[in-house]
Design brief:
Largest sheet: 5 strands, antiparallel
Strand content: 25-35%
Bound molecules: flavin-adenine dinucleotide
Mean pLDDT: 96
CATH architecture of the largest domain: 2-Layer Sandwich
CATH topology of the largest domain: Uridine Diphospho-n-acetylenolpyruvylglucosamine Reductase, domain 3
Structural class: alpha+beta
Number of strands: 18
Low-confidence stretches: none
Radius of gyration: 21 Å
Strand order of the largest sheet: 6-7-13-11-12
Distance between the termini: 24 Å
Number of domains: 3
Amino acid sequence: MKVYADFEIRNELWYKIGGKVRYLIDVESKEDIKKAFELLKKEKIKKFFFLGLGSNLIFKDEYFAGAVIRFLPSSNPIRLIRPHIIEADAGVVLDDVINFAFDHNLVGLEWAGGLPGQVGAAIRGNVGAFGSEIKDSVKEAEVFEIINNKPRFKVLRRFELQFSYRNSIVKKKKLGVINAQFRLTSADQGVVNRARQTYLNNIEYRKIRHPLEYPNCGSIFKNISDPAHIQKILEVYPDLEEKIIREWHGKVAMGYLIKRLDLSGYRVGDALVSPKHCNFIVNLGSAKASDVLSIIKLIQNKFAETFDFVPEVEVEIIQ
Ligand SMILES: Cc1cc2nc3c(=O)[nH]c(=O)nc-3n(C[C@H](O)[C@H](O)[C@H](O)COP(=O)(O)OP(=O)(O)OC[C@H]3O[C@@H](n4cnc5c(N)ncnc54)[C@H](O)[C@@H]3O)c2cc1C
């Protein structure tokens, strides 16, 4: 376990935004996790937050008077435990799991190519892309719950993880994930090569569509799926009916709406609504959380004015 006091968190996060935290605690094992919570008890710290790569967070600029517990991979972070079952530590990035699988002639996770993040957060949020979700491959996960300042460890099988759209029991009960097992499909070399190509294509697709050349935190808002809200949008833009059915699978793409509301390129400080994909607010260098949050507020106000509802934020705002 490594402990850093009064630590500037910004550079550890994907978005490169955030203030100081009272403690950053790096953990690699159950022993480390126990020790971390002993420290929290001793220091009477109530507030704690689990951190992966920080790719889906806006960490505020103000002092975080709690502990950030970051999961690092152990010395043997990805293990083949049966011919088609891989176990990976929470702190392993998904891309490494996928490549480990290919090296062992296993396929099934290639849809997640380029999806930033670690195993722990992927389980928590049941990440998904291109019509697949992580739950499709999860066999079980080892988790812990904090009761009276002590971690209680247990293994939850797939059905006990209660996966749903971008959700799981880990999120609902604020559990920590230590590791997860993935049940994959054994394949011959031809199938593995094709899966590897799909994986590379997905990475390429993301590079073309997303403004990855700047620090970002993924999609800021959820796409609009509430029928009442879609109706309100159609009252203002009746021409979108066709696109909603044919292109957006019954939803309305937030990136499109933000652009149509003329907010592409809108900038506060070093935070910019990306002209490449307007549902991304990129950090041009030294953006503050307050800059990003004021753009979010502006977009919400514009929606309230134009459509009479406020879009839901997807990214997590910490503090
Ligand atoms: C460019 C870009 C594209 C993206 N595309 C997609 C996409 O296509 N599909 C999709 O689903 N998501 C997407 N995301 C969102 C992001 O990839 C996921 O939310 C991912 O799971 C975040 O992983 P992370 O390790 O960065 O987690 P973090 O951002 O560090 O944390 C996210 C949440 O998980 C919690 N957490 C972290 N580790 C653990 C743990 N071990 N145990 C319990 N809780 C933990 C944190 O407390 C936090 O609440 C995208 C993000 C970006 C930046």
